[in-house]
Amino acid sequence: MKTGKVIEMLRKAQGLTQAQLAANITTRKAIIEAEHKDRVLPYNTMIKIIERLGVSLHDFEDYRHDHQLPADQALVYQFERLSDTSQMSELQALLVDAQQLLSSSNLKYIHQLIPILVALIHIDSYSREQLTTLVMPVWNEVTATKNWSKTDFFLINNMLYIFDPLTAQQKGKRVLERIDQYSPRYPLLKNAIVANLAYMGIKNPGTISKDQISQYLNESIHLTEQNHRYDLRLLSIIRLAVLNHNIDQARQACDVLDEMGAKPVADIAKQDFPELVLK
Fold first, then answer.
1. Can you give the pLDDT of all 279 residues of the chain as single tens digits?
2. At what angle do helices 150-160 and 187-203 cross, to 10 degrees?
3. How buried is residue 167: exposed, middle or buried, by Cβ count under 10 Å (0-12/13-18/19+)?
4. N or C: which terminus of the chain has fewer CB atoms within 10 Å of its end residue's CB?
């Protein structure tokens, strides 16, 4: 696979626009020409681009030489990339793939993914007790491990949605105490957790204080700005504005998301907070 095609594939997998990938490294024009005209970027620029794409140099070269991940590893990779999505069809497709791989895969994450995906798909139709019963064996298995992997954190982050709101906040606080050893390498993983805890706090008043929600959201804004994920930064700005009852500011941020080509993120915000939709 040509270098430009690998850049484009990984960029889209990360949910980055060309401008976001280029920010403070090179120009959007250079990224466009690399992706579509096979322009060769300087070595130092490529190293920074690969780092922002979230893969190692070794993995990037594997993709360039058409290395294909085993099906079970590829499915786990897709799950990590979908952790911020609310697209039910994508979750359902992952569940079907995981069930098909269950008998042939020795990868522990496949059997752990299945109950989590089932719970996420039925989060509005199953009782809280049913949802907790589904995921508690996975929670116990993952949290009993001394050293958590990046994938473990993705599993845990998704399971937080499934517990009752107060339990989720208590467990989330303990998770954050352990993630700091990983956050220098995976800052957006820490962002996913603090942003989700903040969102659950907004939707479930009384589970944590308004000050704590603000702290989580401000940390999210800082992490996403540092890592040039301006779409996720705006999502946290929207949540902070809603928390402070500044609906006009939240609507303006939604408009900016639309203008920068991040409509799916704007749609998530409007789905989460219907008051943002002008009638």
1. 688 888 888 887 777 888 889 998 999 999 999 998 888 888 888 888 888 887 777 778 777 775 666 777 778 877 877 655 557 888 898 899 999 998 888 888 899 999 999 999 998 899 999 999 999 999 999 988 877 877 888 899 889 988 999 999 999 988 888 887 665 667 888 898 999 999 999 999 999 999 999 999 999 999 988 877 888 999 999 999 999 999 999 999 999 998 888 888 898 899 899 999 876
2. 10
3. middle
4. C
3-class secondary-structure state, position 40: coil
Residue 145: DSSP 8-state: S
Residue by residue, DSSP assigns 184-214 as: TT-HHHHHHHHHHHHHHHHHSTTSS-HHHHH
Alpha carbon 231 to chain centroid, angstroms: 12
> Distance between CA atoms of 38 and 261, rounded to whole angstroms?
24
* Cα distance between the two ends of the chain: 47
Entry pTM: 0.72
Two tokens, residue 43:
């070595």
Distance, in Å, from the CA atom of 21 to the CA atom of 16, rounded to the nearest integer, reads: 6
CA 233 to chain centre: 12
Report the distance separating Cα 161 and Cα 250, nearest Å: 23
Distance CA 224, CA 221 (A): 5
Structure tokens at 177: 């105490």
Helix (H, G, I), strand (E, B) or coil at 195: helix
| Integer Cα distance of 3 and 49 in angstroms | 12
> Which among 206, 125, 90, 207 has a CA at the least distance from the CA of 160?
207
Alpha-carbon distance of 60 to 7, in angstroms, equals 9
